Amino acid sequence: MSEDQAQLMRVLYSQHGGALWSHVVRITGDRTYAQDVVQETLLRAWRHPRVLDQTEASARAWLFTVARRIVIDDWRTRRSRVEVSTPDVPEEATVDQIDAIIQSWQVAEAVRRLSPDHREALTECFYRGHTVAEAAANIGVPVGTVKSRCHYALRALRLIMDEMGVSNG
Amino acid sequence: MDDHPFATWDAAYVLGALPPEDRHTYEQHLRDCPRCSKAVSKLVGLPGLLSRVSIDDDGRVSDDDFIDEEPPATLLPALLNSVRRERNRWRRATAAAYVLAAACLVAVSVWAFGPSPSTPTKQTPPGTQMTAVGAQPISAQINLTDVAWGTKIEIHCEYPQPADYPSAISFQLVVIGRDTQTQQVAAWRGIPGTTPTIAAATDLSTVDISRIEVRDSAGQPVLTLRR
Predict the structure, then answer these.
(1) pTM of the model
(2) Complex ipTM, two decimals?
(3) What is the per-residue pLDDT across B34-69, written as a single tens digit (0 to 9) for each?
(4) Which one of B29, B68, B79, B202 would you mutate to disrupt binding with A, by most A Cβ within 10 Å of its Cβ?
(5) Considering only residues 118 to 137 of chain A, which have any Cβ-Cβ distance to chain B shorter than 8 Å?
(6) What sign for the dihedral angle of Cα B115, B116, B120, B122?
(7) Which of B177, B195, B187 is CA-nearest to residue B216?
(8) Which of B37-41, B131-135, B167-171 has the largest mean confidence?
(9) H helices within A29-55, ranges in order?
(10) In a 10 Å sphere around its CB, with 0-12 CB exposed, 13-18 middle and 19+ buried, how is residue A24 labelled?
(11) What is the dihedral of CA A115, A121, A125, A128, to 10 degrees?
């Protein structure tokens, strides 16, 4: 039985450990502290193994949300202990920073999940700032195809982001 | 939608990739076409989000100061340690709860669970009330005991005696595992006015049980216990 439990933790770790670690290092900027946060997050997931029943993206979104909660709660606790002495950054600024980092990660992850055709159209038309005609020439397809690839790319992005729970936008 | 000439222009427009003359044509069209306006309004937030990431010439996507590194080698062993500690703590807490429950039972009274010849009552912890799914001809408390080979289950049933209670109605006890496997672990007939204790067992450990249900003869859940 306890072997199963250990096995569950190994599965969690192998599926999400690397991504969660990288993410927590980013939002905390502190590798010692990140160990505590990642441990606590994975332990919570281990106590609620249904997290793993979802798609990988949803499971990861759940883990990131939990990690965010832990970091923000710790931050508030520490702040209330330290009291007035430090010229404090306003609390919401820190929360917003963390959320912005999480959101950027989610967007990057969503773009990575696009099909190569869709990502190529998006790269041409948005990241390189080309018009649909220039993109069509670069890719070697008709203009109409570029338009429809962009159309379906953004729809796919919407769906992926909704699944990941990306807020606003 | 497919025969609509502008149906797929929304994204190119929002991304700013339509050449000026096309943009002008499309904007004219948007004034008269609720469908396209709606399509555009659903996409307006996306460029802002997309600008948070970049794509390099090799097609690699990254957000600002993206980090991709392996966790330290100490992390997994530390996690497995925590898992072990937590399991042990859980076992001790369960054992303590049982001792406490047994003490309470001795101190209070015995009738609540009915005498059971095979199991001395003082070792039986108080049962957890199962939740009724709608108005049901049965109520029950359930005890789970973690044992080496799985989980011992005892269910204490009560049947109210309304005028229209069928003389004998059958019930099944079903255990649903966290891996969604379903086991029927007992079946019995409910006789109004009696308060039987029914014993059952499963090879699942208590931690691996996600739900226990009492179902009627049609297989519909009537009582449930989530864990």
Answers:
(1) 0.52
(2) 0.71
(3) 999 999 999 999 999 999 898 887 778 887 666 778
(4) B79
(5) 119-120, 122-127, 129-133, 135
(6) negative
(7) B187
(8) B37-41
(9) 31-47
(10) buried
(11) 80
